[in-house]
Amino acid sequence: MKREYVYRAFERFWHWMQAMLILFLGITGFEIHGSIRFFGYDQAVRYHNTAAISFLVLIVFAIFWHFTTGEWRQYLPTWKNLRAQAEYYVFGIFRNAPHPTKKTVLSKLNPLQKLVYAGLKALVIPVMVISGLLYMFYRYPHRYEVLGLNVGGLEVIAVVHTIGAFLLVSFFVAHLYLITTGHTVTSNLKAMITGYEELPEESDEKKSSVEANEPVLTK
Ligand code: HEM
Prior knowledge:
This protein has seven helices and four strands; from the N terminus they run E-H-H-H-H-E-E-H-H-E-H. The protein is mainly alpha-helical and 219 residues long. It has one domain: Transmembrane di-heme cytochromes, Chain C (Fumarate Reductase Cytochrome B subunit, Up-down Bundle). The protein has a two-stranded antiparallel sheet with strand order 1-4. A two-stranded antiparallel ribbon has the order 2-3. The radius of gyration is 20 Å and the shape is elongated. The protein starts with a strand and ends in a 12-residue tail after the last helix.
């Protein structure tokens, strides 16, 4: 095993900010929805709006970072080893089987992570942002009156936004479990805090029968 620098400073900052914001948006959002009571409705709305704006700012910086570093390629979904990875989580993990794919600095996401994260970035988060902004501005003050965007009613927006919130909460719970499934129970968590992780050395990888993920970046 070799200690490698896997997650850079901005990547870790972005990851933890995103985690906190989504958690906070989830708590305040489900208070607005009426499922929980914590801050009180009015305060929950104010907090939700402020967190949403912070999330939008973070997203702009994250998009810039992903494209300028080329890291967006990490998320390109692949069929290769997808089934093996899914079978590992359903069966192998409970039988102490080895991980079917290997994490490397150039390919740090397994095929299932690529698929799920790409879905979040390309679908769920954009849907949350668009429905959230429509929710915020479906009525907007014009000079002498309040106008409505022609979006076919608030109900559709609210339902779409709430379905997205349920998907994000489900992802959050699954993510907490999957954090513990690295080489050791805490290795993934430590890596996202310090940036460093123990990864198999090149020579070990070649000797091993376990297939490595295809490196996707050329740095
Ligand atoms: C940039 C992203 C987001 C924006 C702009 C946004 C905006 C909004 C707005 C304006 C409302 C309505 C508040 C009111 O009734 O006055 C709302 C409700 C809500 N939001 Fe968000 N939100 C965003 C992200 C999220 C995220 C990430 C979650 C969950 C993790 C979430 C969960 C909810 C929920 C559950 C509701 C209540 C829906 C209902 O019952 O109608 N939101 N959001």
